[in-house]
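Q: Sequence in, structure out?
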Amino acid sequence: MDRKDRYILAEKALTELLALKRKPVGIKFLKTKEDYEKAEAQEPKTGLPYCTAVAKAGVAKTGENRAYKLDVSHNRCAAASTALGMLPVSEYRLSGQMHVDLKVYKNLEVSRSVAHDMVYCSEENYGVLIKPLSQYEDGPDLVIMILQPKWAMRLIQGYAYNYGQLKDIKMAGMCAICQECTSYPLVRNHPNISMLCAGTRCVGQWHEDELAAGVPIEFLGGIIEGIWKTIDPMENKATKEKLIVRLKEAGLEVPEIDLTHNYYSKAYGIPK
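A: Exactly. Output:
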């Protein structure tokens, strides 16, 4: 299987296993101007906030060009440009004064502590490429998924199957797509979950029941394997039956699934 087919299959598997309503979106950092110019993607003439580009890429129809590239002049969000290593961190932001002025935190001490805990890209980047996972050949640096809480649980269970507890989840409901789902998981090489933030819920138009996950690409295969392996112990009969239908409709191989088994029904004396 070549690389492109691998990412097409990964997108299909994630979509059906996690009942995704939006495509998984791959993010690739473009280190130099030359890398940026070579990237085959549309450059929004009037610019876009980074998280809006992620949202647009996630609703691409089959064969539709929803690949975007943003540099500092086309990313309409200074916070995202800072998180992604396209702008240096300003003293106004780092001091905590910025968010005190915005009345986000109780006082300067709290605001400064949040600012100092933000994890931005440590290396300078010229730009960023944003497109559905299935459209990659060389592979992204990480994948962002928008999903509902129940399916976020399954993603974490898939991670735990191979890697153990998902530790150090980091969130403040601020800079959600750019920092909590991109720079933090990339720099720390660690998947993260985000409840999203007010800003991205505005410009990204996410639904109220949606949250996000950022996963470095090297963990993706292990997570997918873990989700497959834990279908029997984690899912109930009704969910398994729906999953079988989705897998068949997507043309994916259906594993042997025991409709009568999970780890919790007999333990708690509740219906299967």
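The first strand starts at residue 25 and ends at 30.
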